[in-house]
Specification:
Keywords: Acyltransferase, Transferase
Distance between the termini: 66 Å
CATH architecture of the largest domain: 3 Solenoid
CATH class of the largest domain: Mainly Beta
EC number: 2.3.1.-
Strand order of the largest sheet: 2-5-8-11-14-17-20-23-26-28
Helix content: 25-40%
Shape: globular
Protein name: N-acetylglucosamine-1-phosphate uridyltransferase GlmU
GO molecular function, one term: acyltransferase activity
InterPro entries: Trimer_LpxA-like_sf
Structural class: alpha/beta
Strand content: 15-25%
CATH superfamily of the largest domain: Hexapeptide repeat proteins
């Protein structure tokens, strides 16, 4: 007897999706087969595909090393998801992710960003070429840097981003590089040494390197510095619960992170659609934009939770007053992402480049004349600084 899910699998196979052992593959009834390409897609045994938002573009391989659960993910061209759990994440193309993955809501991997086995991500944004080793927990992070697969930002194996505080909040997002320069794909890579960690929120500049085993607790936004951070001394001290040292720094770092995502949202709204040349690609970019908006909502939610713990402390009245306006200003930026004159010049140049040469995203961005790159970076930086001027305390 055929299962209730056999017809949808038969339609996918008739469309061209390869399933070497279809009896072992589960495809939920809510999956829209029109959002799955029939061109060069393979789903290996033991996989589960669910969710009405699920989108799969040509050249994708799912479950080659181990079974994959894929729920409401947007998967671009030539992606390899080799094993694990993937939920409400976006892969923009040419990504490889090893087995034993645990990738959750709000994760975005831009072109050629990759990860080895046993990597956990949530609310994580990786720009092109960023590479994660094995046995890594890298939630609530943004990372840019690098110019190619040979010259890429990297996180060494057994690395942890510590994103949960003793005061039980996650107002801890960390940034490696920045948005307004990172989008131009011409910055030196960041290297985070293996068996190390970051205590969020921290900010690390382009070209910086942390030594293996370093636990980094302080910002280093100057470019091209080496950071060697040892463990704290072994001491015992009385603990006072409910104390929030560095509350202003934590709040401002969250605002800086949100400002960066606001600038990235403008880039996704105005620049990314230039490269969406078919219905599935346009759906990918639309989903990318929605995922980023959801990620910003999550950051605001976590910051509100942090601020709730400050309400009994008078020195933090300024933070609390500012927090009341954060959502309002962020919504204004998202509702009408501004395209300045310099931004218009950049978008026009890219449109001409694609029309004449059918250029892919990475090649086109790296081909931008230096003057246009500089103008484009200023456009995005102005979005960031506008929010920072309004919201930092």
């Amino acid at each position: 007897m055929k299962s209730n899910h056999e017809p949808i699998k038969e339609k996918l196979r008739a469309k061209g999706v390869v399933m070497p052992n279809p009896e072992s593959v589960y495809v939920a009834d809510d999956v829209d087969i029109d959002r799955i390409s029939g061109n060069d897609i393979t789903v290996f045994p033991g996989c589960r595909i669910t969710g009405s938002r699920t989108l799969i573009l040509p050249g994708t391989r799912i479950g080659y090393e181990a079974p994959v659960t894929l729920e409401n993910c947007l998967v671009g061209k030539n992606v390899r998801l080799n094993g694990g759990f993937f939920q409400e994440a976006v892969f923009l193309g040419d990504n490889v992710f090893g087995s034993n993955a645990h990738v959750r809501t709000g994760t975005i991997l831009e072109e050629q960003a990759c990860a080895a086995h046993a990597v956990g991500l949530k609310q994580t944004l990786l720009f092109p070429f960023v590479t994660l080793g094995s046995l890594i927990n890298f939630c609530d992070c943004f990372m840019a840097g690098g110019t190619s697969r040979k010259n890429h930002s990297e996180v060494g194996s057994s690395f942890v981003h510590f994103n949960y505080t003793p005061n039980q909040d996650k107002a801890t997002p960390s940034m490696m590089g920045n948005v307004h320069q990172g989008v131009m794909l011409d910055q030196p890579p960041v290297f985070l040494g293996g068996q190390g960690g970051l205590v969020g929120p921290v900010r690390i500049g382009f070209g910086c390197l942390t030594g293996a085993g370093s636990i980094v607790r302080k910002d280093e936004e100057r470019p091209n510095w080496m950071i060697l951070a040892g463990n704290t001394r072994s001491v015992s001290l009385p603990r006072r619960s409910g104390v929030h040292p560095g509350a202003v720094r934590i709040f401002n770092h969250n605002i800086k992170y949100l400002a960066g995502l606001a600038a990235l949202h403008a880039w996704y709204v105005h620049v990314r659609p230039v490269f969406a040349r078919d219905p599935l690609s346009r759906e990918l970019i639309s989903g990318l934009q929605k995922t980023l908006v959801q990620s910003m909502g999550e950051r605001i939610r976590q910051l509100e939770k942090f601020c709730d713990t400050l309400k009994t402390s008078r020195p933090h009245d300024r933070i609390l007053a500012t927090m009341e306006t954060v959502g309002q200003y962020i919504d204004q930026v998202l509702d009408s992402p501004k395209l300045s004159a310099s931004g218009e010049t950049l978008v026009s140049w890219l449109n001409n480049q694609i029309t004449q040469h059918d250029t892919d995203y990475i090649t086109a961005i790296q081909s931008l004349p230096r003057e246009i790159k500089t103008q484009g970076s200023h456009w995005l930086l102005n979005i960031e600084t506008t929010l920072l001027d309004l919201l930092t305390v």
